[in-house]
Amino acid sequence: MINQKRLVKTFIDLVKIDSPSGEEILIAKEMAKRLKTLGGKVKFDSFGNVIAKFDGLGEPLMLNAHLDTVEPGRAIKPKISGNFIKSDGSTIVGADDKAGLSIILEALVSVKEDKADHLPLEIVLTLGEESGLFGATNLDYTKISSRQGVAFDGHGGVGNITVSAPGLNRVDVTVIGRSAHAGVEPEKGISAIEIASKIISGLNLGRIDEETTANVGLIEGGSARNAVAERVHFKGEIRSRDLKKLEKHALHFRETADNVMVNFSEARLEFEIVSEAGPYSLAEDTSIVQRAVELCKKLGIKPEVAPTGGLSDVNIFNTHGISVLDVGTGAHELHTTRETLNIKEFVEAAKFCYALIQER
What we know:
The structure is a single chain. By secondary structure, the chain is of the alpha+beta class. The protein has 2 domains: 4-165 and 279-356, Aminopeptidase, CATH 3.40.630.10; 169-277, 2-Layer Sandwich (Alpha-Beta Plaits). 31% of the residues lie in helices and 29% in strands. A hairpin with a 2-residue loop joins β4 and β5 (84-86). The longest helix has 19 residues, at 95-113. The chain is elongated and about 80 Å long.
């Protein structure tokens, strides 16, 4: 059975291992060691993702969590305060996604301890989720036989079951004008700032509809107060749970930029839209969704099946034909120094995982 004290200790031990995106080697080695100790056949794929397989009875099931954390996430000092685990306020607490790692480990320890039968399991622990889903994108899918799975990487309690998420297009735009002295001969300049502002003001941003959003989140450029800005770069994104809407709004971005540039024939535009991930949606009658809902009910947890506006490794898994949903781990206020891990919900998520891997 799930041991709360052991679960909490595992989490505290893991968050003390720094693992910001791009620097996951220590946590990857620690997880590989622990999984081997539990009897898993552990390998690193060519990208560095950890894949551990456990023999069992029935159809194989993937369990996923990611190894990296966001900044500020170094030298985390976790502390227990009532029913919550927090940091000292100078860093995140690391529940995203050390809680997921801990839940999977505790479920595996518990079934081994209880000598309980379980499904064949494929534990997939990915690199670079926070920085761009790089681990899942570069995962060696020839090593994965599971056709369904659960990712322990959501916010709130385990009853928060995410079955749909948007695709995302990354937008990078550079406007190149011509510099000139702003006080002596501004007529000779072409302001990249002026051009960029016209492009951005012409874009339809924010909440486009219930499935689609768009944003420009970063702009930089210019060289001096008294110089006509020669170069400006801005970055944006487009998200939608509908692929056609995603493509349509990407075209809107491109056409808006081109229409502005018609009036600035001597300026240049560098425009790039890159798809980071496609959208996915699991029907409520999908086997893994039904299993998760019914299991929550058995455990006395209210299931809340809903879409999200965020992306995760689950986007990539589903585009590779693996039906994976995301569930909460007890983490709240993710990616902030106010982040907390609700111990009660954390334990419930571990119980869910323990029961899930035994269901056939």
